[in-house]
Structures are given as C-alpha cells and as structure tokens.
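Listing S7. Sequence submitted for prediction.
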Amino acid sequence: MTRDVVLVPGLWMPSIAMSLFRARLAKAGYATHLFVYRGRDAAEENIPLLEKFILERLGGRAAHFAGHSLGGTLILDTLCRHRELRAASVLLLGAPVRGCLAGRRLARHGFGRWMLGHSAARWQPCEARWPRPEPLGVVAGTLPLGLGRALGALPGENDGVVRVEETTVEGMTARALVREGHSMLIVSPRVLRLAARFFEQGSFA
C-alpha cells in the first residue's frame, strides 16, 4: 500500500498553512509532498505544473492526493485530464469543484478581480465528475465562518466561503459534513482523522 501523499493548498494559503496536516500524516507513516503554485494563475497554467511535479516526485508510483479549496479543484482537474497519473485515493476539502458563488461575488469588485486573477474563471458554475476507479472522498464544512460571508449570505449549508452543493462531484465515493469553517478544514482534528481513515480504507465509515 502506498504511503505517499501529495498535498495542494488553497488560494492565498501559504505552504505553512498545511504544516499540521503534514505533521499528522507523517506521524501516521506517510511521506508528504507539498505542491506550491500561484493560485491567481489560470487552471490551464497550473495543471501541467502539477502533472510535472507528480511525475518528478513519484515517477510511476501511485499516491494519495489531498487538496484544500482551489487546491482540490486543481487535483480533480489534473487527474481527470491525465488518466495516466496513478492515484491510490483522492480527498477534496472544501473544494468548490462546481463553481463558487462567493468567488463570483468577489470578482464583481476591482480589488476582488485582482485578488482572484486568472483563477476567477474556475469559480463559474460547471459540472464536476469523477470518471476514474480510485476512491474519491469529499469533506465539506457547515459552519458559515469565512470571507465569503462578508459579501452577503450564502444560500444553503456552507463553510463561509463554499456551499456544500458546490463540493458535489458526480461519481464521488463518499462525502462527510463537518461543523467547521472554510479555513479550519485543514487544521480540524476531526478532518485529520477522516483523512487518515480515507487513505487507509477508501471510505469515511
């Protein structure tokens, strides 16, 4: 069983933000590989960079993948496009794979457009499907505490930035809802336990 995990942080998140996540996985015996990218760049620019990173770090070995927010969408887009990349399992944490209402609201303002850069295109409504056989798990927050709330109330369950329905992937193996805000998903003890369980079992049960 593979013990490699590729981690991809969210937009505006420094690599150190995933240090606790990495430490807990390392304690459980996993070798972590952190992919650092420019979140304001378009997905079309970051997908080949992630592909190259995977090939250089892992060669032909399979790995688990975990991505927070935009990092999760990048993982999904890359693995769907490059089926030759081997994966053991994939875990998305608060990833707005179907677009992001809060992101679209932010893009209406000049400063918001600057903050999002070319990544703004990924926040438009879209379909999300997992066509691969490997297990894909989704963790979504339900505590409405995040920057998105400053731009107006978000309909339905949400983590303050991403709505639960925006995390839905057709063909996903399992989804877990946790009472956490968006940024807390990568430091929550419960989410860390769910991640370890998913990598081991391919489910949250």
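Caption to Listing S7: primary sequence and predicted structure tokens for the chain studied. Strands lie at 4-8, 31-34, 63-68, 87-93, 136-141, 174-178. The chain has one domain: 4-201.
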